[in-house]
Amino acid sequence: MARHSILQTLPEPLRSQALERIQFMTFPAGQVLFTAGERCHGLPLVLSGSVKVQMTGVSGHSIVLYRMGADDICTLSIGCLMTGRGYRAEAVVEEEAEAAMIPRGLFDRLLEQSPEFRLGIMESYGRRLDDLMLLVEEVAFRRMDERLAEWLAARAAQGTIAITHQELAIELGTAREVVSRLLKELERRGQVRLSRGRIDVTGELSGLD
Amino acid sequence: MARHSILQTLPEPLRSQALERIQFMTFPAGQVLFTAGERCHGLPLVLSGSVKVQMTGVSGHSIVLYRMGADDICTLSIGCLMTGRGYRAEAVVEEEAEAAMIPRGLFDRLLEQSPEFRLGIMESYGRRLDDLMLLVEEVAFRRMDERLAEWLAARAAQGTIAITHQELAIELGTAREVVSRLLKELERRGQVRLSRGRIDVTGELSGLD
DNA sequence: CTGGCGTCGGTGATAAAGTCACAGAGCAAG
DNA sequence: CTTGCTCTGTGACTTTATCACCGACGCCAG
């Protein structure tokens, strides 16, 4: 039952007591876990699947902030959980995901009673801050063609990716036209083949030029 | 002695015990609190003054991530403190600052024994995440002239700011030339007057055009 | 099977921002 | 006054963002 490493570190009888109060849930692909402005009613521990967290600016543009996968903790929820403020971002399930929801009272009690739980939370927290700082640097200073090539290479060194240019633009926080043009350039160089809603990676993407 | 709200919430005798192990320090303007890669040996609570946190990308460009002032907590340190990884950013004192350094062992003990301390830490964490998410949006989607005007307006609705174009470029995460040109444009419109290392705000900056 | 419709992708024109290179202005110390 | 350093201004060019529009593709109803 305790299919998350932070739960496995809990000593008995704390673990059993915790498991009684934790709600296990399954979310289908496409499901919205939370949206901007919404209140938070528990800390989600991701057990399986994949969830992307993105935000939309006043301009209406969106950008993907990070992803959560198996054994991740939705640290973004902690702030909302403890202060009662609403979320600033939204979370969308990409691959069917299972999660364990820890209610507020239990979260506080686990923090109190388990040094390992504290460590796990703080570790996750540090990683999330690092991710966001890296993203700031990336958005502020790196070239879009490099970022696009890296994104593609990370998904499929060789092979097919099912994604529209618009979705890819949101991943990178840019405009659809920019993605289209950069992809077209990659196609001219023979590094990808393009079709509607699909990108086939055919050549080396990184370390070229 | 307990000149930080999170210390004031501690009940006796926990507070007295904590104060024995906390080191109070004063840092002059210009002092570097920590640099990228450095290990962290305690959680700083800022009592007074102002500290800016900035990071430098592989490209060599820098950007200011956020500032800490009186009653802030250097949440960035928590991740490093708990995991032993090095800092990714650096912190520089802007106005002479006093800080209370909480060693790792004490931090964990306070988390365990004080619900108010836990709440304070998590609140601070949430605020920091929000700040960074806002920064991502700002850098990714907003126009530089707007951001520059807002930055100036926030510092001095009317009056003088002592800063070089290069420093201002780091505040906004852009290039010095871009700042110089935008400032020149503002000067042409009569909204600022420029001199070496100084900007005089003379007109309305926000809400125009 | 075909015609209509909504989504997706391509592209030109133009504006904003970033990069590179360099020159001149302001300031301080000798 | 000269020297040397930092700070600022600017031209030329590249990259990215924005706006406007059109054609291609896929799907579904008739």
TrEMBL record, chains A, B:
<dbReference type="InterPro" id="IPR036390">
    <property type="entry name" value="WH_DNA-bd_sf"/>
</dbReference>
<dbReference type="InterPro" id="IPR012318">
    <property type="entry name" value="HTH_CRP"/>
</dbReference>
<dbReference type="InterPro" id="IPR050397">
    <property type="entry name" value="Env_Response_Regulators"/>
</dbReference>
<dbReference type="InterPro" id="IPR036388">
    <property type="entry name" value="WH-like_DNA-bd_sf"/>
</dbReference>
<dbReference type="Pfam" id="PF13545">
    <property type="entry name" value="HTH_Crp_2"/>
</dbReference>
<keyword id="KW-0238">DNA-binding</keyword>
<dbReference type="GO" id="GO:0003677">
    <property type="term" value="F:DNA binding"/>
</dbReference>
<dbReference type="InterPro" id="IPR018490">
    <property type="entry name" value="cNMP-bd_dom_sf"/>
</dbReference>
<feature type="domain" description="Cyclic nucleotide-binding">
    <location>
        <begin position="6"/>
        <end position="128"/>
    </location>
</feature>
<dbReference type="GO" id="GO:0003700">
    <property type="term" value="F:DNA-binding transcription factor activity"/>
</dbReference>
<feature type="domain" description="HTH crp-type">
    <location>
        <begin position="142"/>
        <end position="205"/>
    </location>
</feature>
<dbReference type="InterPro" id="IPR014710">
    <property type="entry name" value="RmlC-like_jellyroll"/>
</dbReference>
<keyword id="KW-0804">Transcription</keyword>
<dbReference type="GO" id="GO:0005829">
    <property type="term" value="C:cytosol"/>
</dbReference>
<protein>
    <submittedName>
        <fullName>Crp/Fnr family transcriptional regulator</fullName>
    </submittedName>
</protein>
<dbReference type="Pfam" id="PF00027">
    <property type="entry name" value="cNMP_binding"/>
</dbReference>
<dbReference type="InterPro" id="IPR000595">
    <property type="entry name" value="cNMP-bd_dom"/>
</dbReference>
<keyword id="KW-0805">Transcription regulation</keyword>
